[in-house]
Amino acid sequence: MSAGERIELSGWLTPAQLALFDAMHVADRRHGLDVVADLRAAGAVDLDLLLAGLLHDCGKGRRVRLAHRMAWSVGQRYGAWMWRATGHLPTFRTGLAGLHDHARRSAELAAGAGCTARTVELIRNQEAPTEDAGRLLLAADEAN
Fold first, then answer.
1. CATH topology of domain 3-143
2. Which residue of 98, 108, 112, 115 has the fewest C-beta atoms within 10 A of its own C-beta?
3. What is the pLDDT of residue 127?
4. pTM of the entire structure?
5. Exposed (0-12), middle (13-18) or buried (19+): which is 39, by Cβ within 10 Å?
């Protein structure tokens, strides 16, 4: 993250939200910043949406590694057999569980950091959006 990005975040996040962002894995922080950049490039100015874009993966935690992310992506593409096949490997059961439940956990963490109910719901429903803003979030997430 650049110094400019850090300064910008300090201007629109509360201290609790910034702490939640800082607690995220570095890959998830970069991804969140990229999602926000895509949303803004599409003309989004809705703070709830931008905050959801930034924090939507905060529930993954730091224990989710690249190998877990790869196994999860392959499983999404080709089926749950991939998760069953890798679930017996060391750390994979907890890593895959973290990815499976991350939307719910991310929403809970966002609520705990003082995000609005709408931001929390955008995060909770990130994989099955219930409103147009959620569909924008999903598109930006998938593009990054």
1. Hypothetical protein af1432 (1.10.3210)
2. 112
3. 87
4. 0.82
5. buried
